[in-house]
Structure formats: structure tokens, C-alpha cells
Amino acid sequence: MGVGAFRLMALDEEQMIVFDAYPQNDRYLLAHGLVYYSTMSSTIALVSINIEGDKHLDNVIALIKKEQPDVVCLQEVMQSSIDHLKKSFNMELVFVPMKQVVGHDIKGIAIATNLPILETWVLYYAGNKEVLPVTEAGEKRDPYANNHMVLAVTVEKDGDTYTFANTHFTWSPGGQVIELQETDMENMLNQLSTLPEFVLCGDFNAPRGGPIWGKLAQRYIDNIPHGITTTIDPTLHHAGPLPYVVDGLFSTSGYTVGNVHVIPGISDHQAVSGLIGIA
Asked: Interior CA angle at 229 toward 240 and 266, to 5°?
């Protein structure tokens, strides 16, 4: 946890709450990160990860087999990998394409689950849903040749319904804010307002502490603990260690989110994992 940090635990009949305390100047910052429920009827285990195409499929599959989540949100999924992932996860999988890479494959986002899917939404906030953008590979690629959408599903467990939303947000160089991101964020917030209560995860391509992340955090609950200082994998990302939390886990007030942590060594982004309950 670092020098000077310590952990506090509060216990009542319903739950145990764990706070990580981090020194900050002459006081301590409490990060409410881990919630263990004892009497809740059910929770849903969630994993979200940018899998970087087909570069780390063995790692991703091993993670899902080990963690056994109920819902998996994936970004940068190759269409050619879908059948392999469905079979390996033993889950249903919903995929939406974002772009076609010349000479390679169609890339998009997906949600996989072992729970019954009651409803599915595809909410576009950038691009044209009637036209799939095409881009070159490698250094000639156009990072803005993408459709962007929120993919959401409602699932059922033990008589309760849960809505999970997934997105891969607009990229900018060096985590800097660009006008296109501001426009796309407003459009995405408008689309999210049409959903019932939800949990939102994904790669937001905008660091926590900046104005783009801040627009989400102003409207929804940011469930990434303050003690997590990066979601970029320090060894698998091409740029090495970067101090950016760009992979998020947000929720509306209808849900409880606990035991949130990141898992390194899977892809160029760390996996985000948590337990979701009904508030």
C-alpha cells in the first residue's frame, strides 16, 4: 500500500467496508474501495478489459476461467475472435463493430455473459451506424476513423435485473482534451440518459482528473478506488508505465459496486474487476 498507508475496517450486520488510508500532506485520504456483502441476495461479478485485438487472447481466456465472472465487457475485440471467445468463456457474446482495418479484421466492442440477456441496446454517439469506417493498419492508421457507441445489455440473476453498458471512447494524443472528445462526451451522456439504472465500464481514453472523465464523475459514481493510480499495464503497453487511470467503472445510484481492483499482466490495459449489487 505504500509508506505511511494503512487499512481501516468497519463492520455492521449488513456488510464489511474496507477503507485504504493514504497520507496526503498533513492528513489522510480515505479510499473506499472494498465492500464485502454478507446478507445480500446476490451479486454479479464483472470484469472489463481492453484486450488489444488478438494479441493476448490466451491471457484473457485464462483470466476469465480463473475469475469466473458473470459479465465481461471487452474493448478492441476482433470479429474473427468472437467464436473462440464464446466457446472459451462458455458465454453468450454480443459484438458491435467500430471499424474495418484494411488487410486485417473488423474491430469493435463486446459484452459476454453467462446470464439470460433480456434486452440489448446499441446507442451511437459518434460516426454513422449505416457506414463502417475503414482505416489503414500501423503507422498509417487514422485513430479517428471509428464509430463510437454504448453497447448495453440487461441481464437477470436471482430475480433481479441489471443493466451493463460498455464503450471504447474517442482517443486523443497524450491524454490531452480535444474538441472532438468534448462533443462525443455530450452525445454519449445524452444517449446514456435513455437507459435504465446501469453500470458503465470501458476504455475512456481520457485520464481521471481531467475534464472528460470529470463529466462522467459529476453525473455518475466513479468506483475506481483512489489508491489505483494507473490502469495501463506497465509491461505490456508499448509506451511502458504511464500514470493514467483511463479504464473506468461508473454506476448510477441503483447499484452498489465493491471489491474493485485491477489485474495486471493480461493485456496492454489492466483488467478492472468488481462485484455489483442492487442498492
From this structure: 50
